[in-house]
Amino acid sequence: MADQQHNQQWPPQGYPPQGYQQPGYGYPPQGYPQHPPPQGYPPPGQQYSPVQQYQGYGPPPGQYALQPGPGQFQPPHGRYGQQPQGAAFYPAQVPPPQGLPQGWGAPPPGHYQQPYGVPPHSPVPAARPSLGYDEASQRPPPANLSNETEAIRRAMKGFGCDEKALVGVFTKISNPWTMQQLIKEYNSRFMRDLLKDIESETKGDFEEGCLALLCTPLDQDVLILKKALVRAGTDEEALMDVVLCRSNADLKIIQAHYKRTTGHDLLSVIKDDVNDDLFRLYSMVLKAERAEDAAPAIPQEIDRHITELHRATEGTIGANAVAVAQIFTSCNDAQIRAMVSDYERKYHRKLEDVIEKEFRGDMEDVLMRMLLNAIDRPRADAKLIRTPLNKTMRQDSLVINRLVRLYWDKPRLQAAKDAYKKKYGQSLANDIKEETKGDYEKLLLGIIGEK
To answer: Pro residues compositional bias: what residue ranges (predicted)?
Structure first.
């Protein structure tokens, strides 16, 4: 999602070397402002902070790894709930989530009230929105896409559809805003609607995958939420995919866009679909007040929190899910890794084993998702792909959404592929070939940059 090499230069072991990415359409040219490096990956030329791997959590005694600034997956623009051209979303415009009594979750009088991990009077920079969430600040210079629009039209003109040609074009574009340019140019040039043409000329999982690529990541997130939060029963996996382990900036933008396109407050809809404890956890998440990735892990605060975690789990009869959720949802990944390390050192048990023992069902799934993502994100990403890809637990919508999310973040995708091979003994490409077939197989292989 390298640990012992504290002075290692970029890239860390298991991450793509500099120059790995072949600039596809939409990559900013040299000198053009770049998107911040993905969460957990340092920019080229900068020293790599030690990150705990899944097997060995702790940094050297007395030290805590500080995670570099984030850059999560981002969405394309257009299709579902498309915003007006040129519109941008800013966290300051987003009202706080509704649905909680005033003062709920506030610390008791005298309780330490500084944002977790931040010394008094030491503000930390907020993470910028992920690629695909803020068009105004992220749009690259226009690309020449005349050949691509022609190729798409030829692929769907006449009898039948050339799915291979569509895969070749769609998986060549590496920036979600450039994908939106392609859609607009196709529509204006041929006086047609590309999304409707895809819907009429393709079908099944291949159609779903193509449409996911053509959406902005933001629009895709909102579409996933609409499908997940239906009265017939909440799709917890899809809900977790969108709202957990996200930056504060992304969460604010997602909530604003959800309300803009549906007319409903996201937290209020979630409240109708989950139990009370889960609602409290999601209300904490959607407040979008998690410690920014630049916030340090302060030893005294880490010790206080692991004491609280022990008291809320092993130290009581009947685990206190809300107390654990308050800690997990307020801390950044580096702080959680520090807690994992110190918890094992102090109580001689792994924190993830404690969570698995003390919780069941959806609450266990949510807490474990946050914990494992913080410990080793590439390994967590690999597991999230493997589980729904397996024939016995096959969920193609999850496979598509998770791979497309990684597609827009090439370093994170490569790290997940490396972790996948290390964990499961064979490459993700080989598993895709074994588990899928036909045009759908070709599309998934194209998304991960394989043939």
So the answer is: 30-45
